[in-house]
Amino acid sequence: xxxxxxxxxxxxxxxxxxxxxxxxxxxxxxxxxxxxxxxxxxxxxxxxxxxxxxxxxxxxxxxxxxxxxxxxxxxxxxxxxxxxxxxxxxxxxxxxxxxxxxxxxxxxxxxxxxxxxxxxxxxxxxxxxxxxxxxxxxxxxxxxxxxxxxxxxxxxxxxxxxxxxxxxxxxxxxxxxxxxxxxxxxxxxxxxxxxxxxxxxxxxxxxxxxxxxxxxxxxxxxxxxxxxxxxxxxxxxxxxxxxxxxxxxxxxxxxxxxx
Length: 259
Fold this sequence. Notes:
Layout lengths: L1 E7 L3 H5 L3 H8 L3 E5 L10 H6 L3 E5 L9 E5 L5 E4 L4 H4 L4 E5 L4 E6 L7 H22 L5 E6 L23 H12 L2 E3 H5 L8 E2 L5 H4 L2 E2 L2 E6 L6 E6 L11 E5 L6
Parallel strand pairs: 1-2, 7-8
Antiparallel strand pairs: 1-14, 2-4, 3-4, 5-6, 6-7, 8-12, 9-12, 10-11, 13-14
């Protein structure tokens, strides 16, 4: 059994001040996928990173203090891949993948399209190109796990007020349609496969006391290929973790990470 945690930390240096690493040591997942690091590896204390007992890999944005993803893994992977072979997105540090014999794991930070038409178009381009990338990759590697902040609420159940948010970036019809089409390529939303209940969110605005009122959005996902579905044991939202405006998700699969 292997456990995979995904967490948009909204700045890893800020999250460290809230004892992120102390919390990780208690939860003790096998693989940790981080989004929005907002830091380069050399801006972090190497001894503090090593103290976690993980191999660690960073894919940071060219722009300082922006975006960025990372993966920590107890087992050393066979190989890793930085980006998706497209400079348009790779310069923003949005995709990182590590490969084991039985599974390849992504840490992904999808674009936010809410700051205007240009970024919305960028996001829609990313969604199309990411689909093409995954579909092609699956021909070579059938067991894929896409962990991360997708920045889309797929269904009405995934957002606290679907009516008032129907024109909000992250819940637009074209974004939700992409999500449905992506799942139709042979991907499974692990959490929703096991849990059909409303009120399960992974992000809350810092405004209006939203978290205390649970006025949230489910933006963070553990997506697995259909081949991995028989190995799915658990998929949960860890809403008690408060190092960020997001909370982490945890997926457990009956796979072997030892090479």
